[in-house]
Amino acid sequence: MNRTLLLISAVLLSALAGIQTAWGQKITLYMAGNQTYEYDISQLDSIVFSEGQTIPAEEIVVTVDANGNADGEHWFEKIDETNFYIDDIKYTAQSGDLVVTGYNQAFFRGAANIISVLKYRGRAMNVVKIGANAFKECQVLTSVAIPNSVTSVGEQVFRGCSSLTSVIIGNGVTSIGDYAFYGCSSLTSITIPNSVTSISKYAFEDCTSLTSVIIPESVTSIGDGVFYNCISLTSIVIPNSVTSIGKSAFSNCSSLTSITIPNCVTSIGSSAFKNCSGLTSVIIGNSVTSIGYQVFYGCSGLTSVIIPNSVTSIGYNAFYGCSGLTLINIPNSVTEIGNYAFYGCSKLTSVTIPESVTSISNYAFCNCSSLTSVTIPNSVTSIGETAFSGCSSLTSITIPNSVTSIGNYAFYHCSSLTLVTIGSSVDSIDYYAFLDCTSLTDVYCYAENVPTTSSSAFENSSISSATLHVPAGSVNAYKAKAPWNQFGSIVAIE
Questions:
Q1: In CATH, what number is assigned to the domain containing residue 401?
Q2: Which end of the chain has fewer CB atoms within 10 angstroms, the N or the C?
């Protein structure tokens, strides 16, 4: 075949349609230099328009004769006994089938329309795979059509193909390999066929122009980092077939506005939706058992979250920096609230911690500056360090009788806190626990034995003008120990 690329200006598209109607399948093209070519439309594999659009044939069968000549408008070149080019795409014979393994860097341009069958030397070989790295860093690749004969797309196949705008995947593909479309920054949309059951890790990472994706019901798992840093992705529908979402799967998808996690999902990987700053609402299905490390970290636009009763733990940094979150419902199934779980949720106004929780971890509600009320249940035995530090709108707190220790900086800089009630079982209060609580007027401590208390526990908290209320039989004991004896007055609880 002559290597002349068949280019047709988009303005001639309507004219072409008219020619086909009048003359059947034959068209005559007038090329540069007054050359003319007659083509049979039915034999064309694709038409590439000047804007880069491609109309692929569904299945392409190529026959090569004994002299190495390909039929139709195809071009064939033998490299060795197992490798050859068809239309500047490299194919390799493996176990009686063909695998796409590369391309002719000297001549390949534009569309990669993968053939489905090669008839060569009396044999018919199916193209069953696009091998690892086949088109990696191919900057001139603009479109890909993968036929139904292909069952797998290997690792890093189209990685870094920054000009790739269109991908058609045939119904034979069952798996998309690791990093398959990584860095395809011009790709705007992709439809994943129903044959695909798994999307491997980082398959579409850094596809920064990708706006929409349809995931079929056949997919059961979304791998780690699959859509990592797809900053233009505005919507995604996760089908009911999916049981797991990998770590960082949608991390940095800053244009994503809402997400519904279906009931079949049992696990959400760490950082799955980290820094999805445009995310405003999340519905979590009732099979999820834990919200792990940094799952919604930095989702600053998130205003509400519905956590189902299936969840038993809210992990480390789970909602860290969700500065738009105004309401959170923590169900009775939750037993653990991890470190930094709600750190910096600056619009959160109230929190009810359920009876199932036994400890409030370090920094759990730190810098929740709009928090005005907190209900801590009798099940809690310890309040971690800096747990409520920086909750500058909190006016009162009741620490239940079940709590035995209050950690370092637990209520540091709760500058609006006027009333503190400490339960009867508290036996230790660590350093700076109530540092800079400058509005304190009354502290009720029901512990009959004076808790072991750091001398700095109430530092800079204006306790010299506040009243300490303690059990009647313990008044003198509190008066004899610092820093309790620094209160303006110590009186018996009536």
A1: 3.80.10.10
A2: C
